[in-house]
Q: What sequence folds into this?
């Protein structure tokens, strides 16, 4: 099938896949004491109560909210909704104790067990993968400046239409995903295709909320990365592109100025970008 007729992912499809992916990854989950549950849940509820008082929320509005929440659950859209509207603050709190490269949100589209690849590599892609070629190079170092050999860059990103393999129809499994292992100098060179901005599916409840509120559903183009090495704390982050659309209005509020690449246009029409990662011990 040509890319021109590639079907768009539906919200229900993306939501179901994201829910399944979330359940398949062994996320570290908290063993939460009753005191902690009471404290945090009370604070959340007080926030909701206060919003109702401050805005004179009516019964019809309350019932509309209930109907919407039911739809988010039925559509499997909780991973999409929470990662777009809430995760960035959880990351902000985690970042308080993190040195080295800045982190960003994981998002709903990570898949474990991507193909292991050497330090200089093409990312797996279709023979006719559309877009502008992007060569992404750099080095992984520790906080003292020593290169980290054998570090793993688990990288995944959207294609030239903003779609992720595993979450959109007709993209081969593992497309534009891989675990790249750095060389003895901690270096890597990844040849891939420039991703497009990502749009939250507009045909589901999250999309309905965004249009009801007259917001826009876009994230700027980005690369996702988990960068780790034995004895070092894994960094979950994203890299963006200088001058990219929506960089200043990311619906997920997950950009940081330190995470913006400055790609250089090459005479052959491809682009080159460099980024060095710094890992703390832990
Ligand atoms: C969502 C999608 C992304 O690609 C991302 O990086 C973060 C959030 C989402 O649809 O929730
Ligand atoms: Fe993403």
A:
């Amino acid at each position: 099938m040509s890319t021109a007729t590639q079907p768009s992912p539906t919200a229900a499809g993306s939501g179901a896949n994201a829910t399944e992916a979330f359940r398949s990854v062994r996320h570290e989950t908290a063993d939460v004491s009753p005191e902690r549950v009471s404290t945090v849940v009370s604070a959340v509820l007080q926030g909701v109560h206060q919003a109702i008082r401050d805005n004179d929320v009516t019964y019809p509005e309350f019932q509309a909210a209930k109907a919407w929440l039911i739809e988010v659950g039925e559509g499997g859209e909780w991973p999409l909704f929470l990662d777009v509207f809430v995760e960035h603050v959880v990351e902000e709190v985690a970042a308080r104790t993190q040195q080295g490269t800045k982190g960003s949100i994981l998002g709903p589209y990570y898949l474990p067990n991507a193909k292991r690849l050497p330090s200089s590599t093409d990312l797996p892609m279709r023979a006719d993968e559309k877009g502008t070629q992007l060569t992404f190079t750099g080095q992984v170092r520790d906080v003292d400046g020593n290169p980290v050999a054998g570090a793993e860059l688990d990288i995944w990103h959207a294609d030239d239409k903003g779609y992720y393999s595993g979450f959109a129809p007709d993209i081969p499994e593992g497309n534009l995903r891989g675990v790249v292992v750095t060389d003895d100098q901690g270096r890597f060179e990844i040849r891939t295709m420039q991703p497009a901005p990502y749009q939250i599916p507009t045909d589901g409840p999250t999309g309905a909320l965004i249009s009801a509120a007259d917001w826009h559903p876009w994230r700027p183009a980005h690369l996702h990365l988990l960068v780790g090495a034995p004895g070092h704390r894994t960094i979950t982050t994203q890299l963006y592109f200088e001058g990219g659309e929506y960089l200043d209005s990311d619906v997920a509020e997950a950009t940081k100025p330190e995470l913006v690449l400055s790609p250089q246009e090459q005479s052959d029409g491809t682009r080159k970008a460099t980024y060095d990662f710094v890992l703390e011990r832990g």
In short: The chain is about 25% helix and 20% strand. The longest helix spans residues 34-54. The longest strand covers residues 133-142.
